[in-house]
Amino acid sequence: MLILAFDTATEVATSALVADGVVLGERVSESRMLLADVDELLGDAGLGASDLTAVVVGTGPGSFTGMRIGLSVARGLGLALGLQVAGVSTLDALAAGAENVYPVIDARRGEVFVPGPLAVRPEQVMPPAGAVCVGSGARRYREHLVGRNVDVFADDSPLHLPHASLHASLARAFGPADHVEPIYVRVPDAERLIA
Questions:
Q1: For the residues 69-94, what does the mean pLDDT come to?
Q2: How far is residue 139's CA from residue 189's CA, in Å, rounded to a whole number?
């Protein structure tokens, strides 16, 4: 099975090409570069879009715009190429990066996304004792987390990224592209401002 996986829910987009569990290539960039990254991954592997058998997309929680970019690309590829698509939580992918880690994603507005999924203030984060926090929220709010029986990996640790290859390894339920839904933890800003 040749899987194209990507996640655009955080400020960093990751993408990977995985063949039968073997990572053929992985990219880290910005959401706006996703299609260029996909093209490079396929080209570097000597493959084309018609060789793909499935797509895996990060479903968040995260940036509303970022999640919509990823889901739109996944749905477009799924529909255009007749591919099955699976969604994987960005929090789950971060947690799969190492043992005893607790994912914390920057949710902006002075909040973070944590397993549940929930949006909470950084000082309300309650990771298990001895856990190591990972993710954009862990880096940004390090001072709120360190010293509470938890630690945070160094800012340059690759474990802070939701690697798309982990999404591919976690994917289980493949189906029609339009069945994959984003994980919204709170109302999008546009709806909140209109109400």
A1: 97
A2: 23
